[in-house]
Amino acid sequence: MDRNASFQGFADAHQHRLLRLAYLLTGDVHLAEDLLQSVLVRMYGRWSKLRHVDRPEAYARRTMVNQHISWRRRRATGEVSIANPPERAHSPEDSTVLRVVLHQALMRLTPKQRVVLVLRFYEDRTERDVADLLGCSVGTVKSQTHHALARLRALARLRALARLRALAPELAPRLPRPGRPGSHQGGPPMTWLGDELSRIADDMPRRDLGVRAIEAYHRRRRNVIAMAAAAVVVVVVLGGTAAIKLRPEAARPVAPPERAVIDVGVADTVEAAPLYVALNKGYFAAEGLRVRPVLSHLAGAVHAAETGEFDLAQTDYVATFVARQQDRSVRIVGGLYRAHPGSMALVVKAGSGIESVADLKGGKVAVPHLRGLSSLSVAALLKRGGLKMEDVALVESPYHNVVKGLDAGLAATLLAEPYLTTSVREKSVRVLRPALTGEFEGLPTAGWMAGDDWIRDNPRTLEAFKRALAKAHRLIAADPAQAVQALPSSTKFAARDLDGLALGSYSADLDVKGLQRLADLARKYSILKKGLDVRDVIG
């Protein structure tokens, strides 16, 4: 068997189990893929030797665990999927709430604490096994386990009983509580924790990373060879010009942005937090920019960006896709946010008799934008519930109006954070179905757009804006509390009302593959009239 076939066979046999482990360690689908793929690339480079060892998967696990602990790209908070909760005799929200609580608390542990708990209770390894894997003493493993469980209990209580009990207060007496080390609700010690970790790992979709790892390895080798050749050329050129005396010349100043002041349209949701972090930290000022955030309804953002009312504007991507198919002059210029699966939901009035999506037939459903991500997610929910878009009447209304609309004839409305958690906590609404699960899980959900003319006329301004935001995103990645502290500015909610939000992840990079999947879903559910290549929409 040749090298490629042998390696692919190994990857096919073990990659999903390793991916599940990576997901528990990172808390994020994409970071889990990145972590495992980096390990597979390294293994492929050494496969001529590794293929002959007894258990190459053990090498993969050890390398992945150690790389995770030292990986600077890891995120302190993860995205928690609540897709496809297991069927239960009572409300399916019961196990969903518990899984969300545990996953969010798990992601608040230190990387080493998280590794120890996952290896001990998910992979059911002995303390000696974990010590050997981490290269430490058994005493260190015991200490890490003790402190990790204590912190997990405290975090779970705070998050579960402050926020997630509000989602389903009638279930509160039935929710299991993480107990003391060695305790369990009627079963073997800590079996409960292992079971719940396994359910969290179920949220990791299957991926084929073997072929991608092989391609990445060869691409990296080609790049190294090309760089080495370029270095030789540089040395030769420099050697030939070393004797030439150049007249001293002052460094050319960097040209300032074309615009010193820009107006940026933002929604009153959690997505725009990096903009306010950049403002508060002076990152825009350092680039010679004065940025003025302007609260805007999602439905009007395309027009405002196209006409120049806004220099840049927040977009949910789908709205920009639709606009381009309508020959509107706007393009996507930057990434911003990837939603938590529980951060958007279809809700009904508390006390409503509506128990399923099928019960919405003939009713009115409110969304913030009729041709955006919100209407796309509703279309998918309706199809899963056996309905078509024609079976309900979609009405357009901004988030701050729709809760009142439930008292004025609306059957349901789509809510995003922070409106979702605050409304549930106030017991004015009840979650009917989470919106960004299943095929929508892990997709990018918010970015920045600008008009074609503005992009052409203001390249330095755009680059300065993106550089400042990139600094804010890096700061948030290192310290997620920075985003939380900015939320009162970005949402206009009081800080006391923002505890326990289901936050996603912030990224300035454009995920082209994710955007293409989003565009394909928009075509699948007839939000787009025809297929779209998202590369044509990126400016």
Summarize the structure.
By secondary structure, the chain is an alpha/beta fold. The protein has helices at residues 3-26, 29-45, 47-50, 56-70, 93-106, 111-122, 127-134, 138-167, 191-201, 210-241, 273-280, 283-286, 298-307, 318-325, 373-384, 399-405, 419-425, 452-457, 459-478, 481-491, 512-524; strands at 261-266, 290-295, 312-315, 330-338, 344-349, 364-367, 393-396, 412-416, 429-434, 444-451, 505-506. α2 (29-45) packs across α10 and α6 (111-122) packs across α9.
Radius of gyration: 25 Å
Number of strands: 11
CATH architecture of the largest domain: Up-down Bundle
CATH superfamily of the largest domain: PhyR, sigma-like (SL) domain
Oligomer status? single chain
Proportion of residues in helical segments: 40-55%
Could you please describe the fold and organization of this structure?
The protein has 539 residues and is of the alpha/beta class. It has three domains: 3-201, PhyR, sigma-like (SL) domain (Butyryl-CoA Dehydrogenase, subunit A, domain 3, Up-down Bundle), CATH 1.20.140.160; 261-339 and 443-536, 3-Layer(aba) Sandwich (D-Maltodextrin-Binding Protein, domain 2); 344-440, 3-Layer(aba) Sandwich (D-Maltodextrin-Binding Protein, domain 2), CATH 3.40.190. Helices cover 51% and strands 11% of the residues. The chain has 21 helices and eleven strands. The strands form two sheets. A six-stranded mixed β-sheet has the order 2-1-3-10-4-11, sandwiched between helices. A five-stranded mixed β-sheet has the order 7-6-8-5-9, with helices on both faces. The chain is globular, with a radius of gyration of 25 Å. The protein starts with a helix and ends in a 15-residue tail after the last helix.
